[in-house]
Amino acid sequence: MPGENLSRDEAQERAALLSVDSYDVFLDLRSAVGDTEPGGAGAEPRTFRSVTTLRFRCAEPGSASFADLLAPSVTAVSLNGRDLDPGEVFDGSRIRLEDLAAENELVVDAQCAYSRTGEGMHRFVDPEDGEVYLYTQYEPADSRRVFANFEQPDLKAPFRFEVRAPEGWTVWSNGVGELADGVWKFAETKPISTYITAVVAGPYHYVTDSYSRVFEDGTTLEIPLGAMCRKGLAPHFDADDVFLVTKQGLDFFHDHFDYPYPFGKYDQAFVPEYNLGAMENPGLVTFREEYIFRGKVTQTSYEARANVILHEMAHMWFGDLVTMVWWDDLWLKESFADFMGTFANVGATRFTDAWITFANRRKAWAYRADQLPSTHPITADIRDLQDAKLNFDGITYAKGASVLKQLVAYAGQDAFLEGARRYFKRNAYGNTRLGDLLSALEETSGRDMAAWSRSWLQTAGVNSLTPQVILSAEGRIAELAVLQDAPESHPELRPHRVAVGLYQRADGDGPLVRYARAEVDVDGPRTVVAELAGAEAPALVLVNDDDLTYCKIRFDEGSLATLRDALGEITDPLARALCWSALWNLTRDAIVPARDFIALVLRFAGRESDIGVLQMLQAWANSALVNYAAPDWREEGGALLAEGALRELRLAEPGGEHQLAWARFFAAVASSEADLQLLQGLLEGTAKIDGLDVDQELRWAFLEPLAARGAADESVLAAELARDDTASGKRHQVRCLAARPSAAVKAQAWAAVVESDALSNALVEATISGFGQPSRRDLLEPYTAKYFAAIDRVWAERSIQIGMDVVRGLFPSLQDSPETLAATDAWLAAHEDAPPALRRLVLESRDDLARALRGQARDIAAAG
Asked: Positive or negative CA dihedral for 802, 806, 808, 809?
């Protein structure tokens, strides 16, 4: 990655000097098919021709600047009609531009490389039918892998794309396209940033629909809709549901934003080997194809897909229409889109309980990220592109969305939305900073947004809120207060708008129900909730009931005792989800022992009605076992989880989604000979569980633990691939192959990822996942030293995406010992000058390891 970085200072200097009028980009993609495939490590990349004509103005004629391009070679460069020597002006990542005129035209003819890492122009060959599929992915700065440009978000311009593709292909871009004389020509875009331009090309299966909206002034908006996927996935593609959510979202955002969708058509492409969930390219949104479900999934999966569709749609306004100046203000698009995705899901679709999922899943991501040493304010200090790449994290997305949910409670929903409407109209097709949005919200709410911003957007860390209950002699509440504290590293105490709920058993021995509630502004270390004085003594006090603010919930001793006995009796699903989330945070903070959390899951999870909460509890229970349980208790704890999962699997409604969730969880924790025999029997059809359909995806879920435990060898996995000879099947097989308990297998997997770049991004991810199996930690012990010896080189030589995958995925977290912690500290001490992004990844992994060791110590202490 040397020479590929761009600093904020460089971007600011270039933006002050240059303004862009237009781009004309011609791509010749006919080389995507034919010839032989690249041979692996060290092989020459397959390339395509890219010709860019870039027109721009310079505020200081005679000065110098540069254009960005990452390409194997440049054929020709001309600036204002002067031919430049590519060997002199192009260094592999930048094109030097000197003696600029007031108005300039730069033409760059280059050979750009197809990608196998999901960055730039990704090329995928479908093993099922040999068809080639292309798509682009750029954020934050990979459009320079496809065409020459000024790669920063504040140098917007209109784009015109022309693409020559193999015969029989269809090509899509941001604008409407047509095929003329063998070339696909696309309508000019509105002014947009380089990172949201897009091209998708290949023999995709394509389905169309349309959206129509009549506004109050009588005008009509017609939006052509399209959705596409690989031909091999077409039988599984439920495009009708995708279109349903799309139309519901467009109606919702038109109702609330009062600004018509500005980018013409709306295509959605589900593409292979995608690194992200999705990307908001205007007019051509791209998604990972795993959102097309090959087997039976729970409603959680459909809800998640709808949330992503709506998240990306919100970006059409927050991010595409109005864009941040630099990546410091990434929250201006991602936090808003994350909030709006759930807001619209609840308000417009069948997923009316999406705030429960948000509280249970998205916030868990935020709480983890906000307690890492790399935590940062929502408005972050982004020095360069590597910083920007790592800032697509739980702070920017989920904490930012949580804070916006708090802002809506603080400012009022109507004022919040009116502020957004003014923001769009004032800044359409422009770039903004924090103050631009805050000023609009201040106007509409009458609130001091500067003070709110200082507390919530410009400081890091998460507060904890704990109830303090003082009872009178008569057994009623004499005083109830909320105590707020913060970690020493980030001591900021923030203003919180919270609801405090009091719960008691109905009729003395019935379910736990809320009988009193008060909203209060918590400010400072102790806030009295005067409205609840005199109320009957509660069995449970739930601070942040209804999930209005962003905080870690704590409990008084009485409430914690109630949860241990009656958590499953809480009737309100959101309150129940909030209690589970709080208990998980207590486990991660080494306050509740891991075995106690697992016991709560075993006792109450079978009664959980919300399928998304259930699946999250199953994931947490497995994480508690793998990371936080005492090592000597893991075998016993695993057996208890497997026994409990099998019991719930047999009790679940036949054919229902709870049955499917317990089947998958049972496979994840199966360990005994009897467990493995049952999985084998379910695969072979010799064992049955009433109503359980073991489809192809579930077959792979059962095969992975069999492979990891040595009960499914290479021949079994080859036979399964023959049964499912698809791209998805290949990823599953690669993961299962790397999971096998053999030193030779682990060595082969390590070499394939670390010593070679022959694998695509998807197969790198699958290999890493299979490599790190907790059932045989002993086989991974030799790789601690190898990891620290390799990561410098990997970071320097591989793309940032692969570098991130390797550094995160291969960290020796399963070697959870003080010795591994010491080895990590030694590497950090010896590499103080390592790239900050690399150090951040190692520091985050170190923190997870240290947290695991604290959790294990707590669990050991609990055992006596």
From this structure: positive
| Rounded distance between C-alpha atoms, residue 186 and residue 170, angstroms | 12
Exposure class string for 697-712: b at 16+ Cβ within 10 A, else e: bbbbbbbbbbbbbebb
CB 761 within 8 A of CB 805: yes
Q: How far apart are CA 151 and CA 5, in angstroms?
A: 11
Distance, CA of 733 to CA of 721 (rounded, Å)? 6
Note the pLDDT tens digit of each residue in 292-344: 999 999 999 999 999 999 999 999 999 999 999 999 999 889 999 999 999 99
Mean pLDDT (the chain, rounded): 95
124 has which bridge partners? Answer: 133
Alpha carbon distances (Å) from 301 to 304, 478, 487, 608? 5, 46, 35, 17
pLDDT at 386: 87
User: Distance (Å, rounded) from C-alpha 336 to C-alpha 322?
Assistant: 12
Instruction: Determine the residue type at 273.
Output: E
Tell me the DSSP string of 675-728.
HHHHHHHHHHTSS--TT----HHHHHHHHHHHHHTTSS-HHHHHHHHHHT-SHH
CB 334 within 8 A of CB 140: no
Q: What size, in residues, is the chain?
A: 864
Residue 162, C-beta contacts closer than 8 angstroms, at least 6 positions apart: 24, 25, 26, 27, 183, 184, 185, 186
- pLDDT tens sequence across 214-253: 998 889 999 999 999 999 999 999 999 999 999 999 999 9
How far apart are the C-alpha atoms of 573 and 356, rounded to whole Å? Answer: 7
Active site (catalytic) residues: 312
Give the torsion sign (CA, 687, 689, 694, 697).
negative
Report the chain's C-alpha Rg in angstroms: 28
Beta carbons within 8 Å of 71's beta carbon, 6+ residues apart: 47, 50, 92, 110, 111, 112, 113, 145
Query: Which helix or strand (DSSP H or E) is residue 200 part of?
Result: strand 199-202
- Residue 540 near residue 561 (C-beta atoms within 8 A): no
The whole-number pLDDT of residue 37 equals 55
Spatial contact of 705 and 667, defined as CB atoms under 8 Å apart: yes
**Distances from the Cα of 487 to the Cαs of 141, 551, 552, in angstroms?**
35, 12, 12
Q: Could you identify the residue written with the tokens 């909203």?
A: 519
Segment 826-855, tens digit of pLDDT: 999 999 999 999 999 999 999 999 999 999
Angle at 561 between CA 540 and CA 502, to 5 degrees: 5
849 CB-side CA count, 13 A = 23
Tokens 């990844």 belong to 841
> DSSP code of 533?
T
| Per-residue pLDDT, 43 | 57
Measure the CA–CA gap between 379 and 737, rounded to whole angstroms: 43
Q: Sign of torsion, CA 237 243 248 252? A: positive
Q: Alpha-carbon distance 100 to 17, whole Å?
A: 10
Distance, CA of 320 to CA of 196 (rounded, Å):
8
CA 543 – CA 520 distance, rounded (Å): 10
